[in-house]
Structures are given as C-alpha cells and as structure tokens.
Amino acid sequence: MPNEALGLIEVKGFLGAVVAADTCLKAANVELIQCEVIKGGLTTVELTGDVGAVNAAIEAGKAATESLGCLVSSHVIARMSEETKSLFVPTEQEKEEVIQEISEVATITDSTEQKLREMKVIDLRKLAYTLDNVPIPKSKIKYANKEKLVHALKDIYGRSEN
Question: Coil, strand or helix: which one is 67?
Fold first, then answer.
C-alpha cells in the first residue's frame, strides 16, 4: 500500500498506553501493530494505516493522553520505506515461518496450546490473519485478546489432528 503510514505515541504507564490505543483505534481506521513496553514505565503504541487516518488517530491519542498527563511524545511517518516497514510489519516469509513453526508442534494439542500461549498477541493476530478457517471474522481479529486467539487457533490445529 503506497500511502501506508506508521504512527507512534510514547506514553508513561499502562493506563496511558490503553487510553492511547483505544482512542486511536476509535478515532480512525487504523490497525494496532503492538504496544511495546520499554524500561522505566514507558510504552510505545504503534499504529499503521492510511496517512490521513494515522494522522487523525495520533492527534486524537495525543489529546487523550495529554489530558491524563502521560504523553511523552508522538510521531507519524508517512509513506514509510520498505526497510522501515520490515521493522514493524512481518514479511510473507516471516508469516510462513510462524505457520511452519506452529505446524511442527501441532501434533500434540497440549504443546500447541503452550506454544500459542508463549507467543505475543501481535504474532497470534498475524497468524490468524494468514489462515482462512479461523472462527473469528477478519475484521474482529485486531480486537481479539490473547485468550480468544489461542482458543481459536488451538481449535484449528486440533481439528487438523483428527
């Protein structure tokens, strides 16, 4: 997507990260990449989407977190380069590696579930997007929590064992 942008909001504390992510996702059609926890109580909320949508989302997130007093900084990178994009968004090869890794442990349901639980939520979402038979609609995957994703993915691999 040529107009894809990266939006970053750095905040203090968990509350700031939740408010920033929630406000941004409600304000515009953007996708949450992840919330990266940094030392010292700092968290960076990472978003992607159309340039205009990311700008609108970041502005809304800034306003919400400023009122809480937890905003540290924010930035939007419009039309990010492929090298920059590779830092945040997995390539097709990386997606295939994740699928292959899970497929290798899918012979035993307990180890599959354990492997899924060890993964980050963002990686579970990326995996769910790549599969066709996930019981969660594609439009709802970005809102699914870890428990829901693990359950849905475990069901898929459990069915493939039978």
Answer: helix
**What's the rounded Cα separation, in Å, for the pair 161 and 49?**
37
Q: What is the pLDDT of residues 83-141, one digit of tens each?
A: 777 777 666 666 677 677 666 554 545 667 777 888 888 888 888 888 877 888 877 88
- In the numeric block, which tokens belong to residue 17? 């990260």
Sheet strands (E) in 38-134: 42-50, 71-77
- Arithmetic mean of pLDDT, 3-7: 84
Q: Distance (Å, rounded) from C-alpha 19 to C-alpha 63? A: 10
Helix (H, G, I), strand (E, B) or coil at 91: coil
3-state secondary structure of 13: helix
Count of beta carbons in the 10 Å neighbourhood of residue 123: 18
Task: Go through the chain and tell me how many residues it has.
Answer: 162
